[in-house]
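Quick one, probably user error.
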């Protein structure tokens, strides 16, 4: 059985290196106490198959991303996209990487997701806990924004004819010919009265 899987290991240098890196992560962590499940115990054959499927999923993802290009050889853009995706998947699978995503490998080993699905995941699927935390922080940060109350604005240049305050704003537009003056549009911030003059 090992010989049949050996024939599926990619020959291309980048793909082979990615396969080896993914296999190392799976081999190192798959049968540890945290990831060991009652349902599955992983031997070399199943880990090799899983790493092959992950690498193929990454390659298929890149092929799909670069679908508009006719030449799908290892040109620089294709190679860069492939390596970026491989690094993303690898670092999210590796629980002791700087990302600290322990849940993704557990979901993969518990068969909650398959190898090909994982390669197409966005950040919200790959590490939902971190993604939700960042979203929450961003919303909290923006929810503290309060527009400046209108009454605190300094007085404007023009006096409102309706409420007699100077709390006004204005803008100018060239509505007529270029040799004539611009039209000034004024809005009262207190009573919302609007007027224009030349």
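Nope, works fine. Designed sequence:
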């Amino acid at each position: 059985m090992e010989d049949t899987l050996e024939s599926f290991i990619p020959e291309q240098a980048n793909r082979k290196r990615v396969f080896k890196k993914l296999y190392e992560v799976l081999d190192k962590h798959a049968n540890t106490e945290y990831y060991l499940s009652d349902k599955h115990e992983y031997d070399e054959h199943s880990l090799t198959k899983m790493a092959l499927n992950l690498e193929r999923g990454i390659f298929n993802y890149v092929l799909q991303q670069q679908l508009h290009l006719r030449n799908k050889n290892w040109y620089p853009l294709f190679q860069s996209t492939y390596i970026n995706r491989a690094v993303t998947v690898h670092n999210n699978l590796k629980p002791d990487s700087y990302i600290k995503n322990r849940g993704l490998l557990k979901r993969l080993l518990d068969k909650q997701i398959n190898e090909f699905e994982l390669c197409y995941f966005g950040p919200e699927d790959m590490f939902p806990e971190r993604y939700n935390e960042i979203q929450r922080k961003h919303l909290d940060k923006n929810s503290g924004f309060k527009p400046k109350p209108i009454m605190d604005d300094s007085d404007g240049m023009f006096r409102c004819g309706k409420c007699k305050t100077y709390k006004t704003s204005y803008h100018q537009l060239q509505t007529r010919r270029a040799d004539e003056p611009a039209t000034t549009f004024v809005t009262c911030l207190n009573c919302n009265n609007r007027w224009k003059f030349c």
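The mean pLDDT is 84.
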